[in-house]
Amino acid sequence: MAESHDVVIIGAGLAGLAAARQLSIHGIDVVVIDSADAVGGRVRSDVVDDFILDRGFQLYNPSYPEAARVLDHQALHLQALVPGVVVSKGTHRIHLGDPRRKPGWALQGASRRTGSALSKMRFASYAWKQSRRPVAEIERAADRDAYSALRAAGIDSTFIESVLRPFLTGVFLEAGLSTSQRFLDLVLRSFIRGVPSVPAAGMQAIPVQLAGSLPTGSVRLDVRAENVTGARVRTDGDDLDASAVIVATDPVSAATLIPGLTIPAGNSVTTWYHSARSKLTGGDGVLVVDGERRGPVINSVAISNAAPDYAPTGRTLVSTSTLGTDSSAEAERRVLEHLAVLHGTSTRDWELVGVYAIPYALPSMLPPLQVRQPVDLGDGLFIAGDHRDTASIQGAMVSGRRSADAVLAHLGVTSITGAA
Length: 420
Description:
Layout: E1 3-10, H1 14-25, E2 30-33, E3 45-48, E4 51-54, H2 65-70, H3 73-76, E5 78-80, E6 84-89, E7 92-97, H4 106-109, H5 117-132, H6 135-140, H7 146-152, H8 157-172, H9 181-193, E8 197-199, H10 205-212, E9 219-220, E10 225-228, E11 232-235, E12 240-247, H11 251-257, E13 266-276, E14 287-290, E15 297-302, H12 303-306, E16 316-323, H13 329-343, E17 351-363, E18 376-378, E19 381-383, H14 393-411
Helix pairs in contact: 1-10, 1-14, 5-9, 7-9
């Protein structure tokens, strides 16, 4: 006989764990299965020679409303990056940031090398307006691509090409600024309201905390789902019967389990980790981008400057991202050459600690973007993941809660709004 539960969730990433948490709060018997050896999905961290390596450069913004409602920020020991960017142009490294937090950067920020003062004021005004708008209003607004939205806001091409395009390429993982304005505005809203950070123990501390809030034995690892309906999950071990099933895997796996499911295209990235002896960027944990796009690097940061536990004493861990999935020795050579230009220092003695090539790092958010995709597929089958909301930790977690609430309605249970 198959084992029976109220709900089976496939996928122990942020969406699946958030769904399990919401269901458990309401007394639902839920089990989460995952083919991996640890929780987290795409939010995983490894420890290599005392360095903490997140699988792909990822940041957590404490302003994410769903995540802030659910997570214990104090327990995560969040380490904030500097809210700004260093733009490399020629032999210059121009510091741009929030003058409230980095007043010493104000003079450099006025440099015309990165655009006119008027453009910078217009962008600051545009971003500030997004931070004041309700999320629902942004989601309902007319949509177009991010580049068109920035130009319509009166921002000159120099500021876009020197600062915004290289910075947003690292956020969207696409260089064309073809991402939806709705998603752009949501991203700007979060940046103004909070400072991107990482947990002291690495990004995987977030799913680990979520899993820790579940009843003992709720999560089963190294279990692969092979076939799914709304009433049964066939695994590579025992079958699991349920009154409802939530598929909360990565989008590609979800499309394999659910024939006919439409998923967005994925944006790929390779993240490189190098060990250096110098502090870099004056000891600040701040993103460095190339205002002239002279090489493959889309951004780089001395992550251990912000989060010292990411590197052993006397070393600096540098996280660098490139578009695509080329992690060859020749690709690393080009990356190191570019990093020498960006950081203004020799990289000959930098040591490669790890590299992660991720074919589907983020779902593409193209206009017209429907932020709230349906989560109820009918017949007891539900779906969750950032591809059903927005390509972010916030999107993954809110989609998990939405799918859980839809399951509660399916089971005839009233959802507790804002359950702790």
